[in-house]
Amino acid sequence: LAIPQMLKLHKQADETSAIQSVRTIGQAELQYNSAYPANGFSCSLAALGGQPGSGAPSAQAAQLIPADLTSGQKAGYTFALTNCSKVTVNNQDMYTSYTITAVPQAIGKTGDRGFCADENNVIKYDPAGGTNCTQPIQ
After folding, report:
1. Which pTM was predicted?
2. Has residue 89 got a pLDDT over 90?
3. Do the Cβ atoms of 98 and 87 come closer than 8 Å?
């Protein structure tokens, strides 16, 4: 009896962590857009990351998210930036939109739902654990 309940609690903790991580990435995108307006948003978790103390933040290593999110793996979920749209302004690519995705590494074990957000920072979920996010987080 105790083991199924413990697994359920662990899965809920992973999902809660995933939602918070999607929020963190979304906030980092807003900060990135403000700090590097010529670039727009980032389409790379690595660009949002970077080691604090390794030099000044830059558009390639903005130091806005922790290393565990930069790797794309955290608390049983895999994170990515996808569906990036860009325009070219003065021979510089500027990303104008993106989608953050968070999917369980093992559906049913590390989480049941997939989570997504875009440049509007509205988090939605996919009850099947994928990236077809249509249900708003309550």
Report:
1. 0.93
2. no
3. no
